[in-house]
Design a protein that fits this description.
- The protein is an alpha/beta fold and 300 residues long.
- Helix content is 31%, strand content 32%.
- The protein is built from 9 helices and 15 strands.
- The longest helix has 15 residues, at 133-147.
- The termini are far apart.
């Protein structure tokens, strides 16, 4: 069985709690957090949800309540049936169209529209089916980057999840060397399965994808296959700030960095970290509450 703790509050309050969570160095990572609006017609009313694999202790509830700056909302604790909640939350998702990409689950048919890349991404244990605003925003930004004439020969997708963004880059630049990584080992099998389902080739050559398990940029495979002219990172604002220097070092002069997973309220901190790493803003996009940033490394 698993447990969930829910707190209802205005959007800015929940966003503040999510930011506090990223800055909490002693956070128990067995407690998984997310925030979302209660309903589409109530965009300013949000809920913070925390999932645990045990009944929340007093210390657990105190840690969650401490994420709120003042007057924490009531915490509602409930026991949940033994269900894969990530898969369940993605079942029945509608297809999305972002840039030149159409992404759908196996429940929906492929598009036959000329010039559109179609991907089937089933609900899985990994993040990145395309429906989240950050993933869709990255697909749209990649389309924009291609339209601006970018030629990519070597790219890396850090925190790949399902492999979708790496597949998208390979579709736009079919002769690129591509590397994908994730901190979660379960993503290896997920990416392999999704590659097979979408006609993508796993391997070390051009037009192929290498998958590895890595924490950030620290891995021999990532070192050996760099430097890169494009790095994709759809993760969280805190890790993006921490990894900015590593991203800068791993890019060729004039190389490109596509960042997502940050709320618009977190954009200033991420951009400041990128500036310190020698990166400047080339373009930005806002999808809902989320910022998608195209950064570029100085030429010299």
């Amino acid at each position: 069985m698993s447990w969930k703790v829910t707190a209802f509050a205005p959007r800015l309050v929940v966003e503040g709690a999510l930011v506090a969570h990223e800055d909490a160095w002693d956070w128990d990572h067995e407690i998984v957090l997310s925030g979302r609006e209660i309903a589409e017609d109530q965009p300013e009313e949000w809920q913070l949800e925390a999932w645990l694999d045990h009944k929340p202790t007093r210390a657990d509830k105190s840690a969650i309540a401490a994420l709120f700056a003042q007057d924490p909302p009531k915490l509602i604790v409930e026991e949940l049936p033994d269900t894969d909640w990530l898969v369940a939350s993605q079942e029945g998702l509608e297809p999305i169209r972002a840039g030149r990409f159409h992404v759908h689950t196996p429940d929906h048919p492929a598009t036959q529209e000329p010039g559109v890349f179609d991907f089937v991404i089933p609900a899985s244990q990994a993040f990145g089916t395309g429906q989240h605003a950050t993933t869709a925003g990255c697909l749209a930004m990649l389309t924009h980057m291609k339209a601006q004439g970018l030629v990519i020969r070597n790219c890396a997708d850090i925190g790949t999840g399902t492999g979708l963004l790496a597949f998208a880059a390979l579709s736009l630049w079919p002769r690129t060397l591509a590397t994908a990584s994730d901190i979660d080992a379960v993503c290896v099998g997920v990416v392999d399965d999704n590659a097979a389902a979408n006609g993508m080739t796993m391997g070390a050559g051009r037009g192929q994808l290498v998958m590895t398990v890595a924490d950030g940029m620290e891995h021999p495979v990532l070192d050996a296959r760099g430097p890169y002219d494009l790095i994709l990172a759809n993760i969280l604002a805190g890790p993006l700030v921490s990894l900015a220097p590593d991203f800068g070092k791993a890019l060729v002069p004039g190389g490109h960095l596509l960042l997502a997973g940050l709320l618009e309220t977190q954009e200033a901190a991420v951009r400041a970290a990128c500036r310190r790493a020698g990166l400047r803003l080339a373009a930005r996009m806002v999808n809902g509450d989320w910022s998608i940033l195209w950064m570029r490394k100085r030429q010299g």
